[in-house]
Amino acid sequence: MSDLELNDPNYSALCEHVRETGYLESTAALLEWDQQTKMPALASDYRSEQITHVAGLIHQRKIDPRVGEWLEHLTDSPLAADPTSDSGATIRILKREYEKRIKLPATLVMELARAASVGQTQWVEARRENDFKGLAPQLKKIFELKKSEAEAIGYAEVPYDALLDEYEPGARTSEVAGILEALRQELVPLVAQIKGSSYRAPVDILNRNFPIDQQRLLGRTASEAIGFDYRKGRLDVTHHPFCTEMGPKDCRITTRYDETFFSGSLFGTLHEAGHGIYEQGLRSEYYSLPPGKYCSLGIHESQSRLWENLVGRRLSFWQYFYPQAQGLFQEALGDVSLGEFYRAINHVEPSLIRVEADEATYNLHIIIRFELEQAIINGELDTDDLPDAWNEKYMRYLGIQAPDDANGVLQDVHWSAGLVGYFPTYSLGNLYASQIFDAANAQLGDLDTMFQAGDFVPLKNWLNEKVHHVGQCLSGPQLGVQVTGIELSHEALMCHLREKLIPIYGL
Amino acid sequence: MSDLELNDPNYSALCEHVRETGYLESTAALLEWDQQTKMPALASDYRSEQITHVAGLIHQRKIDPRVGEWLEHLTDSPLAADPTSDSGATIRILKREYEKRIKLPATLVMELARAASVGQTQWVEARRENDFKGLAPQLKKIFELKKSEAEAIGYAEVPYDALLDEYEPGARTSEVAGILEALRQELVPLVAQIKGSSYRAPVDILNRNFPIDQQRLLGRTASEAIGFDYRKGRLDVTHHPFCTEMGPKDCRITTRYDETFFSGSLFGTLHEAGHGIYEQGLRSEYYSLPPGKYCSLGIHESQSRLWENLVGRRLSFWQYFYPQAQGLFQEALGDVSLGEFYRAINHVEPSLIRVEADEATYNLHIIIRFELEQAIINGELDTDDLPDAWNEKYMRYLGIQAPDDANGVLQDVHWSAGLVGYFPTYSLGNLYASQIFDAANAQLGDLDTMFQAGDFVPLKNWLNEKVHHVGQCLSGPQLGVQVTGIELSHEALMCHLREKLIPIYGL
């Protein structure tokens, strides 16, 4: 801390309070990580009690009236003068979060937590039984509570703004909708063109036998090469891959292995490692304070997508790694050329399941969810009508029809878990990733030459400096403009997709 | 809870408070387990902060004045009338702990937690580098803090009483010293007789090649057979094996594997599984309350030693398991008879490392540590002089000399982790184990016939009922008398050792 910061007792007390809350938040992260990765089968009931108790302690600390008092004293402090300085951002963000949190009635917070908990349990059952009707009442309840939440928080234009703001601070629904609509208008025809093309990528090679031990080795080697530091992290196996952190030097990623599918684990590992590199790149001296926290979910996702797609699905990446992959998977890849492999991992085809979708169609899955959740929150769609609306949009945007709700509207847990306004951040991540990659390429010179030599350090260091070190000192859009020089739009992503896909599909 | 318990608001509030503290204590256990087993290398500094913070919260809850008020109200309640009933023990033990704890300054508690966390990290380094001097300042600090702790708590005869009482409630240093002195007087000549005997057990067979995967399999099979329930537990690898629990159905044990040594992992796993069976056998409805907590460390250790030594090193155990072991380790054990194997695993010989010591000499290792830590706490020895004092006692009791401190005074983590007064409970465990096993054998009929058939359930169930379900309703000595009918002494253990060793060594 600077002398100015140290000498302001309100600022010191506020930061100390937040750092201590961070001990509990990171401890809660360990409870949850362990629940997903290591915990014995019968231990889950008590674990829920532990997590609930710690969450309660965290909430109490966050609504501590002293936080309001410290912030009140700091409003006119020179420390708050520049809202993008470390101290200014600290005061600005903590004030925003405190005010938002005290606006929410405790009963609503508890009802939401309970509804989300019940919702997740019911969702597992509903998806397994293909029973949307069984989930519908709970889903209606959750969306009603989210509407109440939006009203309690307040919004500029539409209620959905309030929910989006939770994950993408400062973003407006109208702006995001405009960008995603422009993306959709160009993406739908491109996907249709590819569907109509006569070229078929040799995707079956990815379903040959890929022994898990070798997959583990390649995933570890590649994630380490791009910059995930295993002295400050680890990689475990879970059914649903994720990235979490429980300390400034303790970031943990997970993956799952399928012996008969190459892409799932490798690209999943690169994706989670991208999230992890961001977490590891945050300024550790500000751990749990705004300057040391990730900017927004969209920016977080941009870091995972950048390494997964912009780097990991790039020809130059495989010019370096393909010989290693062939060495590890002699039987599966021995007779496959680099070109065939490259085209297979970049295959585009409309499909039903979001998490298995390719780089291009993925965004159409998101746009559908974004449109549907907006319609519900803004009162234009009833949750009971979700399956029909879902199927209609899948036919219109992707030209496919789910055989049942389990593979349709029931495929994602998000809404059942109370996560509304979360989906668009996935596509914002893709859009930011393309723009940020282009900026890096322009500033660092020819990245492909570096990748061909297995050198990912310059890109990682550039991201550390330009993106990660910013923390929450800038908002997502501000960070985007500072790093790339332009406002967020669909263009860089479309340009990137066209450059890659037009040659592959001979369009 | 009974109606009486439910209708007493002070009792309900007290129990609820303690259960909630339990959420934090079990969370702290996870932070520590993860630190030993899974945590990335560079994460230890922040982990220490997390543990310190949670320890502070736990301490705050334990000295909450309301606890004192609830206990005050309950002193004359009918719930407290029988001090060995569930409610009576709850009130009695919580009162004892509360009174002890309010004597401890918060700063001392936090300093001790931090010193122990740092101490453990430094110990790893010091042991690896054979650098006692590197650890010495931290060790001195820890012992000074423990002296302060003893003074703050108060004691009847000597300061060491206060520390011993933490692990073996109600035990007096003078009494324990008397029993261990009697043990030493009979043990030293027995060990000398064995050393002088012309028979040499074929111990080299245990240093053949034992592939780790097979060791893992045998350890898992045997620990499961004796009753460790893996639906409520797990087994991991650590350098220093331990057992911990982080919930009523979440008990975790660890082991370490050495490909060229059979006994280390297998008997270590049986040992930790014995601890785990005790934890899993506690009444889960009383989790984190005295009736659902282990009685004392001595009783805890009796359960691990009973399964490790009284059962695991017994001929009848191997009459069942040896064919399996031979099948797993064809190359190593194919030409070894059961008799040779049995004599090898029961070989007695003075050696340097406590955790690798045999059943007989083990207690001499403990007696040395017990004498040394008493001397430090009672002001008769300086920590800097530990290596010399250590080596002098090893020569006197065991007739051997460590080549360096790594194999001498640095071999155990306990003191570096702030565990002073803990060591004697290991030998108390051996003493209790022999008495308890004799009682089980007398009450259940011929245990050997059951073991020969691989049936360990009757013994496990008997221990559940007689020992585990008691929790802290009785003290260690009370439990011992109730289960075995006699006071604790060195006799059952000596009898057991003589019965086994005299035939083997032809004394």
Overview of this protein structure:
The structure is a homodimer of 507-residue chains. By secondary structure, chain A is mainly α. Chain A folds into two domains: 3-103; 173-505, Neurolysin, domain 3. In chain A, 64% of the residues lie in helices and 3% in strands. Chain A is built from 22 helices and three strands. The first copy, chain A, has a three-stranded mixed beta sheet, sandwiched between helices. In chain A, a hairpin with a 5-residue loop joins strand 2 and strand 3 (251-255). In chain A, helix 7 crosses helix 8 (159-167), helix 9 (173-196) packs parallel to helix 22 (491-505) and helix 16 (362-377) packs antiparallel against helix 17 (386-398). The interface between A and B is medium-sized, with 34 and 34 residues.
